[in-house]
Structure prediction request, 156 residues.
Amino acid sequence: MKKLTILALKKKIFLRDLLSRMKNMPDDKTDANLISEIIINSEYIDYDPNDMSMENFDNIYDELGKFYKKIKNTEFEILLEKHIFDGKLLGKLATGFKLVFYFDFRGETHHLIFSTYNKTFFHIYALKDKNKPISRCNKLIYNCVLNATKKKLNKS
Prediction:
């Protein structure tokens, strides 16, 4: 595998599939990880999106585990986590994502990101371990889409 970069990921992303998954993440009532969803909806993970069998899901998570082992403690992993925490990752992956609001509460952030592709606002949440910059020692604990809506949310 070539050296992984955000630009390489941008070229290999299946945007339509990712948007569909992001839109459904809040309704799934699962603790879906947004970074994992981005990786799953790329050429790095080989699977059939129409196959809903348990065997297919097992295969997806096996491949995802192998991928995470390859990127563990690399600059690529740190960049993914930094950019998801500061609300810039989706904008770096596709020009149709715009950061509307960004709220930083020390160890956690909330962002409102607008997708011009499907005219949807995504409320994204990220939580890191300590109130220090993301690094090999200080990783993200959690990152997900909390809400997907066509209506713009207010700051108040």
